[in-house]
Amino acid sequence: MSFFKIKACYIIVLLTGRAFLVNAQTAPSYTTAQAHSHNDYEQKIPFYSAYYQNFGSIEADVILRNDTLFVAHQQSDMQPDHTLSSLYLNPLSSVISTNKDKVFPGSDQGIQLLIDLKTSAAQTMPALVSELKKFEAMLAPKGPVKVVLSGNTPAPADFGKYPDFIFYDGRPDVKYSAAQLKRVGLISQSFPMYTKWNGKGILIEKDKKSIQDVIAQVHGQGKKIRFWATPDEINAWKMLMNLGIDYINTDHVEQLGTYLRARSKAEFTATETHKPYEPTYRNNDARSEVKNVILLIGDGMGLAQIYSGVTANHGQLNLTKMLNIGFSKTNASDSYITDSAAGATAMATGNKTRNRAIGVDSNLVAVPNLPGKLHLMGIKSGLISAGSMTDATPAAFYAHQPYRDLEDNIARDFLQSPVNIMIGGGTAHFEKGRIADSLKMKGVAFSNNWADLEKIKAPFVLLDDAKTVSMQKGRGDFLVSAFKKAHQSLAANKSGSFIMAEGAQIDYGGHANVVSYVVTEMLDFDKLVGEAMRLADADGKTLVIVTADHETGGLTLLDGDFKKGYVDGHFSTTDHTAVMVPVFAYGPHSLDFRGVYENTAIYSKILDIFKKYQKK
């Protein structure tokens, strides 16, 4: 809410909002009930723009002329049909009638209408009281609308002369008697009185303390506080919430409404963390023999997703212990922004392709997958995903289809693949068309029961959709357990092994724009990274590569707290973005992955390293 001068007069229809506590960094739980539409009458649709955003406060400036209360900032702006009743009181009465005495359907939330009386209290109060009496049934203390006058209000000594459905907007430096304080519905002050902060960066400590002191003072009186002339953009809104200001002022009604409605999806505080593995860096910078390659793909994992995990895990991840880092350019052959199919195909085949294409080039012609190439060298492969094995990323390592949607055909392609181990979800596509039976006839064990993991012998396919739910729905240690099984099953192969394991649901969380989903998946994926680093140190001949196919969600981090494991993020899209993604490498030949290169280079680098040490 914005207030111009102490002498200006406002009427505030005050929404009933819940109380909250202020914590450092972690803002209290804000909803649109704490949003204020500044100069609401300047919105394209006065009242209703804010109302349909479920705002808790709406502001209208009022000028008295010839016994009529017009809504306008100054007399030259007045329009005949823009009166207090036509723009605000009648619409309020109508929605309350429709909603059975509630402002918002099925909600006990009230509403605050701020009216800046541009004419003097002596002139305006009689007409205002007369007008409000027509709507007394909906006004507090009887109804859900609390009217608070501000600006050119009567003197505090005269508060009691007016009906009890009128409250007043106080000031923090005014001392009120107990009786007067009962009629104070809100306390306001100019934000620039305490700081020149423009919304960028953070408040200096001196200014922050001054603001916190006045907020504490007002809250100590049992009142809510608002400031006018506050900065009005996302980073500023977040800072104002951290301070514990009761109403967030905005001219950007739809943007603030969208932001506040997403708060439950934007914040996450970790309740469980993991201790990163302490690497020995065995052969880490050496260009020595590589027998095994582990490629870990965090689907949708960009730098913000990684740093959200760093923050939630109190400042460190296994990933942050890797020393050799590069960047991969992810564009598809037909688009600046890739999807998982084209992104994974680039890494699995060394070919750029069109979005939605699997294991084919840009002409949709099948090209060899990396496991097929490695099979010719005697190297065995395993594929793991925390999602469906017929989805784009794992499919690119064994299938050849023009469209990722052809999941039944993708599953059938596995019959021609030399991949030795597959663990993930997507059971239905393998059971349809008797593909599972065909695998068994080829000597490949098939199970749709996670309980069979320990006893099943390679070559095998284990698909259990119940174990590829999100971490928040109880997936547990699926990725690490599946990876250990695959590694143990392939370790005896003298020519070496290749394992691709995908943290599929980092991407799902990005598409859903849910920070908690992203972070919990990121933390689980990092446990897999730590296990791979441990295995690399154990033999000194294993190269670990960690990357992403693309970034999802356009995630930015607006706030965080390492000590609390608290993350506050904001998404710019529900789709993928074009930003480069990091490539982390650990073990021998990890130096080869430094620099900036096309995602197709990951394929060629892996293949070249294996060829270098192929036994003659």
UniProtKB/TrEMBL annotation:
<keyword id="KW-0378">Hydrolase</keyword>
<feature type="active site" description="Phosphoserine intermediate">
    <location>
        <position position="340"/>
    </location>
</feature>
<feature type="binding site">
    <location>
        <position position="550"/>
    </location>
    <ligand>
        <name>Zn(2+)</name>
    </ligand>
</feature>
<dbReference type="GO" id="GO:0006629">
    <property type="term" value="P:lipid metabolic process"/>
</dbReference>
<protein>
    <submittedName>
        <fullName>Alkaline phosphatase</fullName>
    </submittedName>
</protein>
<keyword id="KW-0862">Zinc</keyword>
<dbReference type="InterPro" id="IPR018299">
    <property type="entry name" value="Alkaline_phosphatase_AS"/>
</dbReference>
<dbReference type="Pfam" id="PF00245">
    <property type="entry name" value="Alk_phosphatase"/>
</dbReference>
<feature type="binding site">
    <location>
        <position position="299"/>
    </location>
    <ligand>
        <name>Zn(2+)</name>
    </ligand>
</feature>
<feature type="binding site">
    <location>
        <position position="549"/>
    </location>
    <ligand>
        <name>Zn(2+)</name>
    </ligand>
</feature>
<dbReference type="InterPro" id="IPR017850">
    <property type="entry name" value="Alkaline_phosphatase_core_sf"/>
</dbReference>
<feature type="binding site">
    <location>
        <position position="502"/>
    </location>
    <ligand>
        <name>Mg(2+)</name>
    </ligand>
</feature>
<keyword id="KW-0597">Phosphoprotein</keyword>
<feature type="binding site">
    <location>
        <position position="299"/>
    </location>
    <ligand>
        <name>Mg(2+)</name>
    </ligand>
</feature>
<feature type="binding site">
    <location>
        <position position="511"/>
    </location>
    <ligand>
        <name>Zn(2+)</name>
    </ligand>
</feature>
<comment type="similarity">
    <text>Belongs to the alkaline phosphatase family.</text>
</comment>
<dbReference type="InterPro" id="IPR001952">
    <property type="entry name" value="Alkaline_phosphatase"/>
</dbReference>
<dbReference type="Pfam" id="PF13653">
    <property type="entry name" value="GDPD_2"/>
</dbReference>
<feature type="signal peptide">
    <location>
        <begin position="1"/>
        <end position="24"/>
    </location>
</feature>
<keyword id="KW-0460">Magnesium</keyword>
<feature type="binding site">
    <location>
        <position position="393"/>
    </location>
    <ligand>
        <name>Mg(2+)</name>
    </ligand>
</feature>
<feature type="binding site">
    <location>
        <position position="391"/>
    </location>
    <ligand>
        <name>Zn(2+)</name>
    </ligand>
</feature>
<keyword id="KW-0732">Signal</keyword>
<dbReference type="GO" id="GO:0004035">
    <property type="term" value="F:alkaline phosphatase activity"/>
</dbReference>
<dbReference type="InterPro" id="IPR039559">
    <property type="entry name" value="AIM6_PI-PLC-like_dom"/>
</dbReference>
<dbReference type="InterPro" id="IPR017946">
    <property type="entry name" value="PLC-like_Pdiesterase_TIM-brl"/>
</dbReference>
<keyword id="KW-0479">Metal-binding</keyword>
<dbReference type="GO" id="GO:0046872">
    <property type="term" value="F:metal ion binding"/>
</dbReference>
<feature type="binding site">
    <location>
        <position position="507"/>
    </location>
    <ligand>
        <name>Zn(2+)</name>
    </ligand>
</feature>
<dbReference type="GO" id="GO:0008081">
    <property type="term" value="F:phosphoric diester hydrolase activity"/>
</dbReference>
